[in-house]
Write a structure and sequence with these properties.
Radius of gyration: 16 Å
Structural class: alpha/beta
Number of helices: 6
Largest sheet: 8 strands, mixed
Strand content: 25-35%
Number of strands: 8
Order of helices and strands: EEEHEHHEHEEHEH
Length: 240
């Protein structure tokens, strides 16, 4: 499907936030999907993922969650700097940003009412779990990829599991040093105890960042391809 890309400025309580929007060229009504970035910023990889999703027949938007920072893009080689910026993020402010992106999607004539999903990797995976609870009236499907730190924070995203109203599909890598097995178990237990509609998959040969084909050391093609297929099916089932 042919798509058009644009860079928008969305209003948040802390000023303007850049967002990358991709939509099908063909007129029509499409579900909307938020793509939440990794700790390296709204980079070319996140933009490519946003384009891939849009080509499946969605209006996809990736907000720049680092818009309050002076440095908003970090190379993959500088994980320490990325983590430093990420650690300054505050969940309530991120939920303001997500809310601004959701409000934008809802205002668009080509976005199908009541059909908004969210996905993200790493930091964006954590930021996907949170709006499933925080924006539960709007988010109808959520796909967190290796969501780091879900049981962490005060309050943690995990503590808000009961508020989640949409189905989730979560992906993890068994060789992920950043998400201990206990965290995966805690997430699965919380979702199970709260009787949520969720599916999860742990890829035995994948580590952290296995979906990012711009990071040769992290990318694990078989796992990434399988997860992408499952993501497409899941969103189609719940949003289309």
């Amino acid at each position: 499907m042919d798509v058009t890309t644009s860079t928008l400025q969305l209003n948040t309580p802390d000023g303007k936030m850049e967002a990358y929007e991709v939509k099908p060229k063909e007129p029509g009504s499409y579900p909307g999907i938020l793509v939440l970035m990794e700790a390296f910023g709204l980079n070319d990889h996140i933009k490519k993922v946003t384009e891939r999703i849009a080509r499946e027949g969605y209006v996809a938007i990736a907000p720049d969650l680092f818009h309050r920072e002076s440095e908003r893009l970090v190379p993959y080689s500088d994980l320490q700097k990325a983590v430093g910026i990420m650690n300054r993020l505050q969940d309530p402010k991120v939920m303001d940003d997500v809310g601004a992106a959701i409000a934008h999607l809802k205002s668009q004539s080509n976005v199908k009412a009541g059909s908004i999903g969210v996905t993200g990797c790493c930091m964006g995976g954590r930021c996907t779990y949170l709006p499933a609870a925080h924006h539960n009236k709007d988010v109808k499907a959520a796909v967190p990829f290796y969501p780091g730190g879900v049981p962490m924070g005060n309050p943690s995203p995990l503590s808000r599991t009961a508020e989640i109203a949409c189905p989730l599909y979560l992906f993890f890598g068994e060789k992920d040093p950043l998400i201990p097995k206990e965290h995966v178990e805690q997430i699965v237990k919380a979702l199970t105890d709260a009787k949520k509609n969720f599916t999860y998959k742990v890829y035995p040969d994948a580590g952290h960042g296995f979906f990012c084909d711009d990071r040769p050391g992290s990318y694990h093609e078989p796992s990434a391809k399988d997860a992408w297929g499952k993501t497409k099916s899941f969103f189609a089932q719940h949003l289309k």
